[in-house]
Amino acid sequence: MTKQPLVNMYKILSIAAGLALFTLACQQPAKTNQQEDANNNAQQTPASNVKVPVFEVDSAYAYTAKQVSFGPRIPNTPAQKKCADWLIQQLKPLADTVYVQHTTVIGPKKVSLPCINIIASFNPAATQRILLLSHWDTRPHADQDAFDKTKQLDGADDGASGVGVLLETARQLHAQKPQAGIDILLTDVEDYGVSEEENSFCLGTQYWARNPHVRGYKANYGILLDMVGGRASQFYMEAGSQQYAYGPMKMFWDVANRLGYSDYFRYENIGAGITDDHVYVNTIANIPTFDIIALQPNGNFVPHWHTTNDNMTVIDKRTLQVVGQTILEVIYKQPFEY
């Protein structure tokens, strides 16, 4: 994930540079039936009458901590396989279908990296769908650390927090079936890139965008979670998200503010454009997708980003609750009202 306004960081690009990366294409292989829902819509319970489940934050926190317990989830390490096996094990009893993409991607300096994307599908017959995604891998070194840039990091916020929220979301989707179709995409090899090599980040998402789990897969929109667990996080409307997915993003922010989360979901335009997984979902898969990611008001990443301080001490249950409850409110009450 790349950045520009300040130094040579990796997640935020200036708006001009970020938008220049966007190109169009699309492709797909197969599995699942998504066709019968149109005739049933009239008989479904009005969304306004649906009781929204309570997001169990202790569960999301435990899911986050469990990922961290495997150690840094760096591609081509034992922790990568152990964590992937555990994620699949968690999702299989919850989802209608779980797809696993095993592939090899080419990272910086032409290094071959094993990549494991995991997709959990809920209510597969529904034609109206929302894609929820987060990366589960860890950056191989703490390149922004003030003391030792060669050390590995836990990636508690940058990776594990978003996945923790989505695993708890999956648990709720299993307990109370939504009317909308939901697909949870956990992507690998997101954070192995270097700023000198264009498109070297988000390799698992780039692969999925060209090779989706279902032939012809489409969703109405996507929501990317990246760094959504840090204490007192603030989420601003990112520039590329505004360009490609302003409607659903504005709806999400409005819901969060209506729930009383205005300290977290901010409307101020700080002008930050981020090269993150949503770029490739927008431009290759052509699914309007917005990014929920913690930023500082000056457009910088939060201080623990890509440092050894990104561990469980920065994870705050209140932040996980705010993000997770807003997701459930949108899914069950107004998934397509934008």
From TrEMBL:
Q: What does UniProt give as the signal peptide span? A: 1-30
Give residue ranges for domain Peptidase M28: 117-330
Q: Does the keyword Isomerase apply?
A: no
**This protein's record includes keyword Acyltransferase:** yes
Q: Name one Pfam family in it.
A: Peptidase_M28
Record keywords: Acyltransferase, Signal, Transferase
The protein depicted here goes by the name M28 family peptidase
Q: What is the species of this protein?
A: Chitinophaga filiformis
